[in-house]
Amino acid sequence: VDFNANKLYVKVLPFSLLPFLSQLANWVQTTMTRFRPCIDLHAGAVKQIVGGTLDSSSEALKTNYVSKHPSSYYAQLYKDNDLTGAHVIMLGPGNDQASKEALQAWPGRLQVGGGISDKNAQEWIDAGAEKVIITSFLFPEGKFSQPRLDSVLKSLGGDKNKLVIDLSCRRRGDESWFVAMNKWQTITDMEVNSESIKALEPYCSEFLIHAADNEGLQKGIDEKLVERLAQWCSIPVTYAGGGRNLEDLEAVKRLSAGKVDLTIGSALDCFGGSGVKFDDCVAWNRKQKAESV
To answer: Of 46, 60, 162, 180, whose CB neighbour count within 10 A is largest?
Structure first.
């Protein structure tokens, strides 16, 4: 290894360096805001839904977009553009097959969530998921259960690198957020704050946090929440909810000092939106990566 003109040249790569380089790659990811895409599944179809309306009543459900493409189309699109860290979310029953089709299109590189428990977590890893995302199972009757979290991690062989904890939340007051479960309709007893984040970090590799009150509205991100997540989290965290355009990506980068990633859904042209082009988000990621080297 030579250092010359502030550049790192690797001449020989002994196996002893591999763990270090893996840690270095993870550090770069946690300090560089990225656009992360999603595949939201509802009733077996790829959809974009206003999060706050996601309940069992079809009359109350507000849908922004229903895709004519299967889930595998989007998985292939993300693969072709090297958009790692994308999540597949199953919103309710009837989505297992569509989720598996996405995983088969890009095995080992997509995260999957929705109905995950200690009984099926490893099954989804075996089906091709890189990581599983879990929320509702951890909150029986709306109360956080440490034994359930321990059980999920045990089912994954104790490998926290396979686990993402979803702390999607709803705002209560000016600067307080509480985890929401059951398709974001039930408010739990867990406040999203420094204490809860620190308590959960040892059990997972990253967090996914939807601001459910902003989800699907395309009216802007919850800037205060993004700021707090950057302050509270020492592992990768992805924020979703209200993202509209490249300016919101720049805002997340500025507010979080590059520590928080952003998912944009309904505003993307590939989901029928007019706020931002998918190709422009891909280009934005490439620019951030180039600047971080």
So the answer is: 180
